[in-house]
Amino acid sequence: MTVTKRRFTRRNGGIAVLAAGTLVASTVATAAAQPPFSDVDPDTRPHGEAIYELAERGIMQGRTDGRFDVGGTLTRAQLASVVVRAAGLPPSDARPFDDVPEFDHTDNIAAAYEAGLVQGYRDGTFRPHAHITRDQVAAVLHRWFSPDAVDGEDRFTDLAGSVHADEINALADLGIALGFDDGTFRPRRDLRRDQAASFVWRTVRHVEGLDQATSQGVTHHTTIDVRGVSSINVMEQGGTEYMVAFGTAMGLRVYDLTDPLDPQEVGAVELDELRLDDDDYDLDADDAEGTFWSAESLNIDKDRQVAFLSRDPRAFQNPQPTGVAGFYVIDLSDVTAPEVVLFHEVPAGHTATCVNDCDYLWSGGPATAAYQPDEWIGRPIFVTDVRDLTNITTFEEPVDTGRYRGATDYAHDVQVDQAGVAWVSGRGGVRGYWTDGIHPDPTNDGLPREATAWDPVPFAGGEVGEYNDPDDPSRMFGAIHNSERPIDGAGDRLLTDSERPRRPGLADGAGGDWATGDLLYVTDENFSAPCSEAGKFYIASIEGAKDGQGWYDEDADPETEPGFALEQVGVWSVADKEGSALDVAPITCSAHYFQLRDGIAAGAWYTQGFRFLDVSDPTDPIQVAYFRPEGGNAFMPMWHDDVIYAGDSVLGIHVLTLDEDAEAAMQTRAEVLAPRLSGAQLTSAQQVTASLQPDEVYGWSCALPAPTES
Fold it and tell me: pTM of this prediction?
């Protein structure tokens, strides 16, 4: 088996824009000392900053007498050299024009022509010594990165009849092409050298910004080209580590991580092997999209080398009220030939999580089945004994009932912390349970009793405060997607029985005024609200929440029960850290899965990509890096040592590491802000959003594919 990989580059502008990213890394590193131009003071001279910036990068040069010659004009040959250096293009030995002699600019003219940056005249000449005009410079710079076309009136009063009016207008909207105080652009006027420096420098800065629109503080190594990624885990076998991934349009895949930056596929379970007898769905005809969102969690029993893969009742386009839910058991003892051993039906199945070292599974969600009690709103947690895989038994009575102010509602997912507490996230907030040992039961006057997986002891929990407004239906009263509770590296349960293992680290601790383990990190999912109100990342304190406040009487009325809110410590959202008016266009900005490692929360934010937050100060989480690929749909990240495997349901599995810029931002606590979405990014985000629709019952949680016309 082979792995198809994709490497991300900026799409617009072809080779010239691609090379521009190289320019910044190479020319800055080799820049000479600031050149002394006798006729330029960079602090006071108009265009002085641009002149010196370009000179330091080797893009524009001065005269041999030490002057820059600010009032001199630029020739067509000189502009070709300037743009070739700016774009980082190699010189060319082609000779496309007969009138270009062998001189300093010959190879650069050829390179610019081959890249489509410059053109000749109808008579086949280039006229290298002719002065370059303002509109011609605009045309060349426009070809460098091909910005989106603009509509409406000309941005300057004198563009009527100009053959380059479209290019000038597009650059004007980006702040690159500037005119005169009287509203004119004067397109046919020769461009002075100092003006040319500012024109080019503004373009360089914009092209660098295009690169930052995709990422900052992140090194992208490769992308495994698979579809519908929904869960990832890591295991070890025979001294070799393997990544196991599942996707709703790819099935299960196993990758050798001998080189963790270049995973190699070694084994697979195809989607057809997961279809049950009653699944009336043509995988070939419908391109397998109907499994969405099966298997949001993929747990691996590292000792027995088996995977537990949850099955949502909507798998293979079955209806939610009557579809079969449960989990598959997949034998991974031979990673080159993983095998489906059995399927076990459970009354819940959106997620399934190991507890007590994979002796038991907790399955939860989604909305209720037709055969379940009418008073239920969503499915609670059902417990299955998987100690003996030949005799799997699901307990009849569920746990985590009454989670929504006394009503039994959607228990979405479970994460087990390093102390063994199982945290259940869903509508009504987050509630943690002891599943083994003797512990005081806060719901029974604090009397100690034995905790088991099928009869757990409540520990702590509650709603997230912002979500307690019953008049706002989009908030769903504390509908939490998933959570983590770091405990300063104590214990190693997350390495043995969590669906998203991570390396515990001391920096994960709460710090400040909070005791170890008193902080809970959570995300809620709400992709149907505007970006400013979409799902966010929260840090909450469970101090004062350990007396059973998050558990309610069975006869409580959710409409009148006040509920119990955890103390909100910190919050972060892309909405006010984006640099653009995100509420203008319908795009998904909700938080989804996240994972902590050494004080950094790696989070997925749908069309807003993967964000990396420094949470060392829990009252003020800040962004230190981001990866926002065009056309992507960020679903879940997983740390593996220093590597992040970022599951993107559209583009595949991105292999990422944080770089020195992210480290610098962490040390200085300087927040990194993503630039506004480019036109192409906004369009692709809208297209991804249009391909999804809210859950018909909950709206907020786990998008479904929108129906397509046949």
Answer: 0.74
